[in-house]
Amino acid sequence: MSEAVAAAARKRGERRKAQTRAALVRAAQQLLAEGRTSVAVLEITELADVGMGSFYNHFATKEELFQAAVESALELQGVALDAWTRDLDDPAEVFARSFRLTGRLHRIEPQLSRVILASGLSMINSDFGLGPRALRDIEKGRATGRFTVRDAYSALLIAGGAALALGQAIHDHPERDDADLTDQVAEDLLRMFGVPPDEAVAICHSPLPDVLDMIHETLPDLPHEQPAG
Amino acid sequence: MSEAVAAAARKRGERRKAQTRAALVRAAQQLLAEGRTSVAVLEITELADVGMGSFYNHFATKEELFQAAVESALELQGVALDAWTRDLDDPAEVFARSFRLTGRLHRIEPQLSRVILASGLSMINSDFGLGPRALRDIEKGRATGRFTVRDAYSALLIAGGAALALGQAIHDHPERDDADLTDQVAEDLLRMFGVPPDEAVAICHSPLPDVLDMIHETLPDLPHEQPAG
């Protein structure tokens, strides 16, 4: 076997391995979204359509897989948030747009939303997703005097707790307008950060880029569901 | 059997029934606090030290028991909050004292705290505990002009999400001062409600009644653990 042939075989093997891992992560995300995390490994591998043995090539335990599944969802959202706020500089505007778009994702991407909500409060302190980005915005706002909060961690707990409570409320109350509620929470949070009330209103009710367009550009891997309403 | 004897027997029967129910609820609270809710009914009745058959005299399903256990914990806290704020009239002060005392409960009453945290975001919309009391305070504050929030439900989501995130952070970071962090979050929330910053500071850093004394007066049924720190 020539070296080129061996290298191609190695590459194929790596690609197959990555595909198996991705299939396991997707299956775990589906189970998380459905609240079915106390399943056997066999059920997970069947859902992922991979061999039972291959599970342990990638994960030592089910918990490790579910952790990876949550981090992957959070990071998918995080990458999207970065892309969607690239043109902004004011930390108040960056935070508000991230928060407003996140609020709109709950109905447009219900599976991604439910995986993130299932991760619960640990989302706030995760290295991935909205949490670290919100902390970055809060700290930048404090450093530049844009925000007057005395303690960044306290402000992060409030914003993170609010993001989760909002997501749950949007699922639990399909009759509510998700955009209106989200924008109101974002406005309240900016005021809490120390942004003057009239500015908070202006920032949180300004036109947004079209969320569906942005999702199709930046989250191409998700099976895009139509919003229910 | 005379009527008086029959009445006494009936009373004894009712008392025994109430004791069995209370033992089941306490066992469920212990399991919730330990995160062990996928146990068999037999394990619950053994932990409660009651007959397996008696379970179904009180609850149709395990879910029903766990629901009752959460509501009982929330209501225990709610009754305590009412007692602890009876002397206050200003909704900003009532909210702040309730929130500050709730924050201090996480370490002083870890089991009660973990049951409430396990109930997650449904705590916010429950008919029991901090949620409905916070909503009452927010609505009263809006009606009297004390608070300037535009939407009470949005403010409730933020305060409730913050209460949960704070509780989790207090458990996850034993090195942090729970009282300082709690008071800072309460201050931020009052500012978000529209209370002027200097007043929010004054209200949220004023002396509090001794929490341990108050707990021993109003929550006599709990096995009082000592704070870890």
Automatic annotation (TrEMBL), chains A, B:
Pfam families: TetR_C_40, TetR_N. Coiled coil: none annotated. Residues 18-77 form the HTH tetR-type domain. Gene3D superfamilies: Tetracycline Repressor, domain 2. The keyword Iron-sulfur does not apply. Keywords: DNA-binding, Transcription, Transcription regulation. InterPro entries: Homeodomain-like_sf, HTH-type_TetR-like_transc_reg, HTH_TetR, TetR_C_40. Residues 40-59 bind DNA. This is TetR/AcrR family transcriptional regulator. It comes from Spongisporangium articulatum.
